[in-house]
Write a structure and sequence with these properties.
By secondary structure, the chain is α+β, with helices and mostly antiparallel strands. The chain contains three helices and eight strands. About 25% of the residues lie in helices and about 30% in strands.
Length: about 130
């Protein structure tokens, strides 16, 4: 049993990048699907596919690497809000990640979105992770 599924998701992606894998499989949930969609929309992953199996399903994520130097598009994945210490931010206090070069993934009352989108919609919420 995993006590923090989002940290498990980020760790699986981080380990696959460090090992140089092209594809990583992650157990699916609605919040993981939303985070995967955000990573795809922001250009951090190449592609993804939801495989619906009976009990839970999986997410198959194709990681993105630069063709010349084989470096990953994702330099860092940092879990911010943890089960033991939740981190919330109002719409005025949403942090900028690496001076605007990275993204903050947030869970708001209007769904999972980036920090920039949350600031534009004037909503706050829980800061799930930073991606850069």
């Amino acid at each position: 049993m995993v006590t923090d599924p989002i940290a498990d998701y980020l760790t699986r992606v981080r380990n696959a990048i460090m090992a140089g894998h092209r594809v990583v499989d992650v157990p699916a949930s609605n919040i993981k699907k939303a985070v995967t969609q955000i990573l795809f929309d922001q250009g951090y992953i190449l592609n993804y596919k939801f495989i619906d199996e009976k009990p839970q399903g999986t997410i198959k994520i194709a990681l993105k690497y630069h063709p010349k130097n084989k470096m990953s598009a994702i330099k860092g994945l940092v879990r911010v809000s943890k089960p033991g210490l939740r981190r919330y931010a109002g719409s005025k206090d949403i942090p900028r990640v690496i001076n605007g070069l990275g993204i903050a993934v947030m869970s708001t009352s209007q769904g999972v979105m980036t920090g920039k989108e949350a600031k534009r919609r004037n909503v706050g919420g829980e800061i799930l992770c930073y991606v850069y």
